[in-house]
Each structure stands twice: as structure tokens, then as C-alpha cells.
């Protein structure tokens, strides 16, 4: 077995991983104990990375050859790389010649490596001469970028992870850190244990798992953050809690802001934000008077039509109280993607240039042109993400190159996005996975390498650069993104008027030396800039471990105590001297008045829709969605509502509802939740048409959650308001329902799901998700996975459609028991398989319930818990049959590592005694939940605090008896 040190490809924490491999197959993964981001810890997603890279998954999901589609709607055929890139170069050259360079656009990803990003940036702005290059980081980080630049002068988070242990007050805003950045949350828990006096304030409309550690939770109304922060500054001024000397010495613009916040009285703020004045006062006191206050914030701040104002208003509080530039203090934006920071470093956005240079600055454009050896860099602003797809929908952009992202799932206002993809003359999709929704719109599909195969660097939230190393060779004909783009660029260069005396892309293709040469070129662009990394090299990153910037070659602060792998050279904390990255060295207070959400609730659309992450899933789930066990915690798509709203609308848990906005509608189950307040709702951002689909009454295909969201964006950052939309929620009158599920062989799982996905549009509502059990952590049992298909319709579909579903799930066999009532539209199929070790027992391997799904809970329990089912033959086939004695609903999985369900936890808690900490320790000792990655610990703590009546209402898991 071979061990390879690399970096996790999920969130912006940037955890180090050690990949275990044998030959060409990744066989395991563990946390790197010497990486300074995680010190060996991994979350549920990171700890299962190797399972998403199995040979069975790769063969069913990966794009392994270049594929060309000769006309839209037809099947794509395999073509050689040379032919594919020549076709792309011909089409791009022709469009550029006929319509100009701004008729093409590139939409890339924060999951690309820095080297990939750099080559894309050079291709668009250096070779083609267009600034139409943007990234899905526009959807997550651009407001944070704009907020830092407007106040501190540079897109540079001033804090570091070590600040957690030094903070006396943590101020968490718009971030469900427990789910979105689990390993950072483990560090917060560590800091709290080491310093019980630490105070934690969480500001979020929802009561998320992050709130479980909070001393104070401010459940503000959606979008009211600026009013809250202005109100806090008003109180700081009134109570004398600001630092006038620091303001006078190190800042500018305070007087204008002071006038703006004068009217933001506690009563006014409490009314707008929907909180108590006492809570506002307490939060302000903690922030201002703590010896060190560290704020952590993420999408709840950024994804807003006032995103820049929100970010800047929070930074204003740090400047007003001198809570910056010292251990444990500062405004710390948590990056959403693994390399959103690296993409910004190389200028991989429509308004940026390499090394944090601004496109609007003529001097900066001249510097980059000189570095690249081209005559100029275009001055015209490029199209940002929303603008780019609108321009394609309008026919202005005629060719799109999309890399490592899935806009047909992740972009707001899917109707416009899909119209853009359909109208665009030529669409290239460069992707590792052939299963994303965007692939269906591609004229040319180019196979890319992914985690475990890539080579290069990424930068995490604390400005730390880590190496990404390949553990196995690329499968099929997949190539590194930078290599394919450089190859394309060389071909395009020969077809365009020359912009440079020599080639702009002199890199060795498909070789680590090529990636290193690109990084060295990027490093040179940073010389003298705020992110200067000229003191670093690939060799140093290999020997001394991950390093933070800035780290100029003549000012490196090492050798200092660092990770066990070597020296820490870069600067961990910025602005300690009070000198900021502005022309005069002073930070600038940003004066922006509060603006409400772009789309307010009204009588037609009375609910606020919030979107966000799930604990065990990542983005569009092209990777995590291949692993059944990661669906245990949240098994299927649903919308969460406040229980009072559900009672008023006469809705029950599991009822299907239609959620409609001014842009689209979708149908999905509803569930009461104490997390959301009255008139609010929540749908996870991950549920695209790959998992949630159907057909509207007008015949249009439903495109997942982003059929509802709106493309209105912040005027400064151009980041869309994905965190809020006004919606209407009504019961969906769909009298006919279907539920089918089956365990499947690993080599058929993904192919079956794709085949079922093609059938989803035949129903008014349909969802299709994997499920799983077992695995190395779960008692050593073999990993098993299956597929669950749920649907509803106005009337029973043709029997042939149900038979097709049965066949896909392996129910068309002699082992299947059947019942059908054509007149009532009912059909049942149960596949029972004899136990290999006991011929008298049989287990349910798959089932289909059509027309009457009332027996779902107990039949699904028989399947998922793999209980003996031989004696239940007639009950299995009888519509509406109640649960047999000894079979109870299993409840959801709380601990994904060990497959521990909420019912098992409740059973243990019923007999537990002692303090909360003692009961938690007993729970962990008995069931092992929360003892591996720790992601479930906040939920375990909440269950430990449940009242006796709440515990009693949780079903007890018992074995079925023959």
C-alpha cells in the first residue's frame, strides 16, 4: 500500500489527507496528523472520500473519453483528444472572428486548482482578449471579497485558525459552521473546553446545529444583518464602547457612518430584525467589551443583494472597537470552496487580474500585460456569472466553456440558465463526472481528473497554500484541467491574430513539471503585492508543509514553530501594526444604509425561502451523491416549515406541497422543524434535478430548488441573493403515490439511478436518491447501497412504466411476490431472498408500493435494517397493512460513521442517568456515535438535553420476530 499526502476537495477548511492506494485504485483515506488545518481530523464527507473513488463508482459516473454531440438532443460519441480540441479551437476562433472576443465566455470553479485557474485566466484575458471569465465563487465569496476591499483595502482574511483558541468572544454570523465547516467547529469545541469563559453569539434566522454551542442566538429576520450591525454600532457609541483613539489613528470615514447609525435605535432595530432589545444589547456588550472578538461568517452574509454592505458593516464593528490585528480578534470570512481563495489570487473572476490586481486599474492592466508578454489586457468589464448566462440567453455570448461546475443545478433562476445553455451556439463542458445536469447541454464533453489524480496547489480560508498530489493515474483519457486548456489555447493561438511574439502557454502537458511551471509563473506575478509568495517554492511546500501568505522572499518570518512537517514561514495574522492595504494605510469605514431583501414577502408569496447546506453532502452531490451512507442523515429532499404554519395550512409531516416563486415551482415533502421561524422555510441547496424533479401542470420539467431562487445580485459584488426568495406553499393534490427501493450490486447502483432519473419527468413529482448501510466503520459489515425512488401523480401511470421501474430495481424475478389492482391503480412487488446461513429466513431485498404507500415506514425498516421478513408475506402485499408486532420505524441516521439512528440513541438515553456530560459520555461509549469525525456531536448534545416526554415519544427500535 502507498500513502500520498494531499488535500481534501470539499470545503474551504483545507484539511490535509493521506490517500491510501494500491496500484491504480484508491483504497482508503485518513486525516493528515501533521497538517495545520485539521491535525488528522476529517468530517463525514472527507472520511469517505475513498469510497467515492471506487472502481465501481468511477466506471458508472466518470467521464472517461472526450465526447462530441453533433446536434442537440442526440447522443454524444467518443472522439480523440486532438479532434475534440481542434473542433473547440475552430468553433471559438470562428465565433471570435465573426462577433468579437466578448462573444465567448468561461465559467469555472472554486474546486479547480490554482494552476487550472491561472491558465484559464491567461487564456481569456491574455490570448482571446475578453474578461468574460467568472467562477462559481461568484455565488459564494464575492461579497466577502468586496467587503474586505472596501474596508481593509485587500481581499485578505486577516485572521487564522489559531485565533480560535485566543478568542474570548466568537461572533458567528450567517454560518452553520457545525455543518458547513465541521473541522473548524471541532476547533471551536476544543477552544470552548480549554476556555469555558469564552462567549459565543450566533446570528442566523434558523436555529441550526451551530446554535447548540451558543450562549446567545439572535434569530434575526432574513436579510436584516446591516440593520443589526448599525444598531450595535449605535449602542457602542451610546455606551462609550468604541475605541476613539484607534479610530482616529488607523481609520477614515467614521463621521459619515456615525450619522447613518444615529437613527438605528434599539427599538427600531429590534422591530426590523425581529429580536428583543435586550438580546441586541447583550450581543453588543459581548462584542465590544471582550478582550478579543473573532467573527466568523459565510453564505448567510454573502449570498444577498446587500452582501457587500453586510460584510462591510460587520467589519465596521471590528474597526470601531479595535477588534482586529491581535490574537483572537478580527473579521474572518470562511471560504465555501476548497480553492475559492486560490482562484481569487490568480484573478480568476471577471473583475480581477492576477495577484489581487483590479481590472479597472490601468496600471494593473499594464503590469499583467507585461508579465504575460502581450500588448494589453482588455479594459471592458467582463460578464459576471449571472450576467454571463443572461447574455448567453440573449444571444450576446455565443460560446461557453464550463469547467468543474454545474450551473444547470447551482445557478439561481434555472429557467434563464437553461435557456442560455440551449441557445448558446457552442457549449464545452470540462468535467470529471458525466452525471451532472449541465452535461446534457454540452456540444463537447472533455474528461477531467479529480481528487486523488490531480497535481497542484490550493489555498484555504486562512491563506494557507497546500499541495495537491496524485495517488493514482487518471482513469481513461481524463486530463488535468490546466493541461487540456493549455493544449486548446495553443491550438487557438494558431488560429487568432498574434498577441505575443511567442507562445503564451509553454508548459509541459500532463506532467507535474508543467503544473510547477505554472505555479512559478503565478508566484512571480505576486512579487511586491499584498499576497507576495516569492519566499515559497514547491520544494519548500513539500519539505516544510503548507504555508500562509504573505511570504515574500526577503521577509519570511521563519523558521518558527510550525507543523511537524517543517517550518511555518508566512504571516499568520494581518494588520497587527494597524497599517492597512489602502493608499494611505488607513482602514475605511463603509457607510451603507440598510436595504431590505430584494423580494419581500406579500399576500401572494407569504413565506421566506432560505437555502443552505446539509451536514453530509457537498454542492450538487456529483461526488457525495454516489455514496448511499451519506444520505442517512437527510435521506430525501424536503422543505422545512415552522409547525405553526403547517398547522394553519393543515399540513402533516410527509405531505407533498407545491413551493412556488415568481420564477418556478417544485413539489416535495414537507416536515415541521423547530429550526425555522414562522413564515419561513428551508430547502437544502443540493437538491437539483439529478435528485428532485418532475413535470409541472404546464408540461415544463422541474429543475430542483434553483427553479425558485432569484438572480437579483449585490450591485458591488454581483453575488446573487440565493439566501432569500418569497414563495407560496400549498398542499399538492396528487392522489396517486409510489415508493420503490432496492439493494443493488455496487457495479449497477449509479447506472440504475441514472436510468431512473430519466423516468422522473414522467411524474408530477419524483425524487431518486441512494441509501446505504454497513461499511468499515459500521461494525465491519460490508458496505451496501441501494436506490430509493419516490413519485406522485394526478392518476395512475401505465403499468408498463411501473414494470420498467421494477425491472431496474431487480424486482422482475422469481423471488418477487406480487399484488395488483388495476381498477384502484394499486400495485405491490416484494423481493424476498433466502438468508445464505439460514434457509428458513428471508430478507427483503427490494419492494415497490404503488397507489397505496401507507405501509412505507415498517416495510422500509425491514429493508434498511435487513430484518427477517419471511413471515410477513401476506402483510407485505396487503394495501394499508399496519406494522407487524416487533417492527418499528428506525428513525434517521444521526451518526453516519457508525450508522447509529435516533431511535437507538433514544433507547440508550431512556436508561441513562447523571449530568448531561456524563450521559453524553455514556452514549458515546455504548454506541460509539460521535467518537470518529464528531460531526454528529451537536445533535447528540441536543438529544441528551431532550425532556423525558420527548425521549418517550421517539420509537424504540426492536428486531422483527418470525
From TrEMBL:
Keyword list, A-Z: 4Fe-4S, Iron, Iron-sulfur, Metal-binding, Molybdenum, Nitrate assimilation, Oxidoreductase
Listed Pfam families: Fer2_BFD, Molybdop_Fe4S4, Molybdopterin, Molydop_binding
Cofactor list: [4Fe-4S] cluster; Mo-bis(molybdopterin guanine dinucleotide)
Keyword Metal-binding: yes
InterPro entries per record: Asp_de-COase-like_dom_sf (IPR009010), BFD-like_2Fe2S-bd_dom (IPR007419), BFD-like_2Fe2S-bd_dom_sf (IPR041854), CT_Nitrate-R-NapA-like (IPR041957), MoPterin_dinucl-bd_dom (IPR006657), Mopterin_OxRdtase (IPR006656), Mopterin_OxRdtase_4Fe-4S_dom (IPR006963), Mopterin_OxRdtase_prok_CS (IPR006655)
Highest taxon of the lineage: Bacteria
Residues annotated as domain 4Fe-4S Mo/W bis-MGD-type: 1-57
Annotated signal peptide: none
PANTHER family per record: NADPH-FE(3+) OXIDOREDUCTASE SUBUNIT ALPHA, RESPIRATORY NITRATE REDUCTASE
UniProt family annotation: Belongs to the prokaryotic molybdopterin-containing oxidoreductase family. NasA/NapA/NarB subfamily.
Listed name of the protein: Assimilatory nitrate reductase catalytic subunit
Species this chain originates from: Variovorax ginsengisoli
Amino acid at each position: 500500500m502507498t500513502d500520498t499526502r494531499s488535500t481534501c476537495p470539499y470545503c474551504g477548511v483545507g484539511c490535509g489527507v493521506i490517500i491510501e492506494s494500491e496500484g491504480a485504485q484508491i483504497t482508503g483515506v485518513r486525516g493528515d496528523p501533521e497538517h495545520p488545518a485539521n491535525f488528522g481530523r476529517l468530517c463525514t464527507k472527507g472520511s469517505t472520500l475513498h469510497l467515492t473513488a471506487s472502481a465501481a463508482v468511477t466506471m458508472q459516473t466518470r467521464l472517461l473519453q472526450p465526447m462530441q454531440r453533433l446536434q442537440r438532443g442526440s447522443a454524444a460519441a467518443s472522439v480523440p483528444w486532438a479532434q475534440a480540441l481542434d473542433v473547440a479551437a475552430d468553433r471559438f476562433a470562428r465565433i471570435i472572428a465573426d462577433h468579437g472576443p466578448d462573444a465567448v465566455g468561461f465559467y469555472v470553479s472554486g474546486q479547480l486548482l490554482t494552476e487550472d485557474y491561472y491558465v484559464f485566466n491567461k487564456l481569456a484575458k491574455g490570448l482571446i482578449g475578453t474578461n468574460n471569465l467568472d467562477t462559481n465563487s461568484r455565488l459564494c465569496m464575492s461579497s466577502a471579497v468586496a467587503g474586505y476591499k472596501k474596508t481593509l483595502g485587500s481581499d485578505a482574511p486577516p485572521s487564522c485558525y489559531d485565533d480560535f483558541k485566543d478568542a474570548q468572544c466568537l461572533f458567528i454570523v450567517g454560518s452553520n459552521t457545525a455543518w458547513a465547516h465541521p473541522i473548524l467547529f471541532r476547533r471551536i469545541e476544543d477552544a470552548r473546553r480549554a476556555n469555558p469563559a469564552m462567549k459565543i453569539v450566533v446570528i442566523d434566522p434558523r436555529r441550526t446545529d451551530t446554535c447548540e454551542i451558543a450562549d446567545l442566538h439572535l434569530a434575526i429576520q432574513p436579510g436584516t444583518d446591516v440593520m443589526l450591525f448599525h444598531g450595535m454600532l449605535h449602542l457602542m457609541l451610546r455606551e462609550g464602547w468604541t475605541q476613539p483613539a484607534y479610530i482616529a489613528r488607523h481609520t477614515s470615514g467614521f463621521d459619515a457612518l456615525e450619522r447613518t447609525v444615529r437613527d438605528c435605535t434599539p427599538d427600531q432595530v429590534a422591530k426590523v430584525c425581529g429580536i428583543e432589545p435586550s438580546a441586541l444589547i447583550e450581543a453588543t456588550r459581548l462584542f465590544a467589551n471582550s478582550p478579543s472578538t473573532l467573527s466568523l461568517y459565510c453564505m448567510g452574509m454573502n449570498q444577498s443583494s446587500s452582501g457587500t454592505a453586510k460584510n462591510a458593516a460587520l467589519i465596521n464593528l471590528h474597526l470601531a472597537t479595535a477588534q482586529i490585528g491581535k490574537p483572537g480578534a478580527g473579521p474572518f470570512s470562511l471560504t465555501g470552496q476548497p480553492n475559492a481563495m486560490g482562484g481569487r489570487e490568480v484573478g480568476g473572476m471577471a473583475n480581477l487580474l492576477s495577484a489581487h490586481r483590479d481590472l479597472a486599474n490601468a496600471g494593473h492592466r499594464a503590469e499583467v500585460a507585461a508579465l504575460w508578454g502581450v500588448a494589453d489586457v482588455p479594459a471592458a468589464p467582463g460578464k459576471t456569472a449571472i450576467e454571463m448566462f443572461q447574455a448567453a440567453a440573449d444571444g450576446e455570448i455565443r460560446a461557453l466553456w464550463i469547467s468543474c461546475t454545474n450551473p444547470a443545478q447551482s445557478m439561481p433562476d434555472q429557467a434563464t440558465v437553461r435557456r442560455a445553455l440551449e441557445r448558446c451556439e457552442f457549449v464545452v463542458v470540462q468535467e470529471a463526472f458525466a452525471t451532472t445536469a449541465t452535461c446534457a447541454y454540452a456540444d463537447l464533453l472533455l474528461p477531467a481528473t479529480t481528487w486523488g489524480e490531480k497535481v497542484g496547489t490550493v489555498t484555504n480560508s486562512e491563506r494557507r497554500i497546500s499541495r495537491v498530489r496524485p495517488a493514482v493515474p487518471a482513469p481513461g483519457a481524463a486530463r488535468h484541467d490546466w493541461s487540456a486548456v493549455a493544449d486548446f489555447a495553443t491550438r487557438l493561438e494558431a488560429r487568432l491574430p498574434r498577441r505575443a511574439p511567442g507562445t503564451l502557454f509553454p508548459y509541459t502537458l500532463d506532467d507535474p513539471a508543467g503544473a510547477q511551471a505554472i505555479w512559478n509563473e503565478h508566484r512571480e506575478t505576486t512579487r511586491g503585492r499584498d499576497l507576495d509568495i516569492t519566499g515559497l517554492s514547491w520544494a519548500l511546500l513539500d519539505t516544510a508543509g503548507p504555508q500562509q501568505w504573505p511570504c515574500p522572499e526577503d521577509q519570511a518570518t521563519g523558521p518558527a514553530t510550525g507543523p511537524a512537517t517543517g517550518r511555518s514561514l508566512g504571516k499568520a495574522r494581518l494588520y497587527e501594526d494597524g497599517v492597512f492595504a489602502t493608499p494611505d494605510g488607513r482602514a475605511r469605514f463603509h457607510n451603507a444604509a440598510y436595504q431590505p431583501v430584494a423580494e419581500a414577502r406579500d399576500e401572494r408569496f407569504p413565506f421566506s425561502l432560505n437555502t443552505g447546506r446539509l451536514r453530509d453532502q457537498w454542492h450538487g452531490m456529483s461526488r457525495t451523491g454516489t455514496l448511499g451512507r451519506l444520505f442517512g442523515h437527510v435521506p430525501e429532499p424536503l422543505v422545512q416549515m415552522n409547525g405553526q404554519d403547517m398547522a394553519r395550512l393543515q399540513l402533516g409531516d410527509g405531505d407533498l406541497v407545491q413551493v412556488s416563486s415568481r420564477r418556478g415551482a417544485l413539489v416535495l415533502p414537507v416536515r415541521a422543524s423547530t429550526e425555522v421561524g414562522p413564515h419561513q422555510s428551508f430547502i437544502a441547496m443540493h437538491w437539483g434535478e439529478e435528485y428532485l424533479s418532475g413535470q409541472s401542470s404546464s408540461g415544463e420539467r422541474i429543475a430542483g430548488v434553483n427553479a425558485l431562487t432569484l438572480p437579483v445580485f449585490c450591485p458591488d459584488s454581483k453575488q446573487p441573493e440565493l439566501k432569500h426568495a418569497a414563495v407560496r406553499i400549498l398542499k399538492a393534490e396528487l392522489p396517486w403515490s409510489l415508493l420503490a427501493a432496492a439493494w443493488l450490486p455496487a457495479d449497477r447502483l449509479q447506472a440504475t439511478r441514472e436510468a431512473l432519473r430519466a423516468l422522473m419527468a414522467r411524474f408530477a413529482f419524483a425524487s431518486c436518491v441512494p441509501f446505504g448501510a454497513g461499511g468499515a466503520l459500521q461494525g465491519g459489515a460490508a458496505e451496501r447501497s441501494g436506490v430509493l425512488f419516490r413519485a406522485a401523480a394526478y392518476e395512475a401511470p401505465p403499468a408498463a412504466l411501473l414494470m420498467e421501474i421494477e425491472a431496474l430495481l431487480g424486482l422482475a424475478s422469481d423471488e418477487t411476490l406480487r399484488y395488483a389492482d388495476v381498477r384502484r391503480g394499486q400495485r405491490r412487488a416484494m423481493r424476498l431472498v433466502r438468508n445464505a446461513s439460514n434457509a428458513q429466513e428471508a430478507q427483503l431485498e427490494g419492494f415497490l408500493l404503488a397507489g397505496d404507500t401507507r405501509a412505507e415506514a415498517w416495510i422500509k425498516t425491514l429493508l434498511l435494517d435487513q430484518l427477517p421478513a419471511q413471515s410477513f408475506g401476506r402483510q407485505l402485499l396487503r394495501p394499508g397493512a399496519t406494522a407487524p408486532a416487533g417492527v418499528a420505524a428506525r428513525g434517521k441516521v444521526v451518526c453516519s460513521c457508525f450508522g447509529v439512528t435516533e431511535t437507538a440513541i433514544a433507547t440508550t438515553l431512556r436508561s441513562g442517568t447523571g449530568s448531561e456530560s456524563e450521559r453524553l459520555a455514556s452514549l458515546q461509549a455504548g454506541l460509539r456515535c460521535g467518537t470518529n469525525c464528531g460531526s454528529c456531536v451537536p445533535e447528540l448534545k441536543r438529544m441528551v438535553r431532550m425532556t423525558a416526554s420527548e425521549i418517550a415519544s421517539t420509537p424504540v427500535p426492536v428486531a422483527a420476530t418470525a
